[in-house]
């Protein structure tokens, strides 16, 4: 009886080992024959937060159209957004408005490949951008970065330059300028008023803040001097 039990156990153990060995051998042979199967994870669509962060990076890199496209991909009706009602939407509104400003009013939904019934002129586009940034400023008072954005936008409008000069010169005097683009806008206005030394000083500050030399081009008058 003892011998029989030992023999039975040996057979059971051998049978238990057969499937594992078979599977291992099959997997090895399948891999060798190019039959291995790899399950790649399904690519995940970027979240709205990631998309707006990408838009902000594109804007800072001078890629205005790419920034606008990223915003419109998440908020296609960004022009009717209410500043301050949704933090992420407000960030998107800021990016889109500044893309309009930094393209001199050229960026529109149509340019970004998004359907729009409105046909924006450059002037109307810049007016919209300045108003949007003003509304953000009203929701976030005393924020130097927001004030710099507003000043930069107003500098593009003939009727807004006096206010822009007041805002940007005040920030520069207190060393609170929140953007190299705002320093570039200040330099341009100072140059146009004949303050070449002031323009040079603003350009120098711009260059200290920006990693992109294209942002801090000297105004024509200052360059000639």
Provide a descriptive summary of the structure in words.
The protein has ten helices and no strands. By secondary structure, the chain is mainly alpha-helical. It has two domains: about 45-140, no CATH class; about 160-220, no CATH class. The model is unreliable at about 10-35 (pLDDT under 50).
Task: Give me the secondary-structure topology.
Layout: H1 2-32, H2 48-60, H3 64-74, H4 87-102, H5 122-139, H6 144-154, H7 161-173, H8 180-192, H9 196-209, H10 220-224
Largest sheet: none
Number of strands: 0
Question: How many separate domains make up the residues?
Answer: 2
Average pLDDT confidence is 85
* Rg (C-alpha, Å): 31 Å
Structural class: mainly alpha
Uncertain residue ranges: 10-33
Helix content: 55-70%
* Strand residue percentage: under 5%
Q: What gross morphology would you assign?
A: globular
- CA(first)-CA(last) distance: 112 Å
Query: What string gives the helices and strands in order?
Result: HHHHHHHHHH
Number of helices: 10
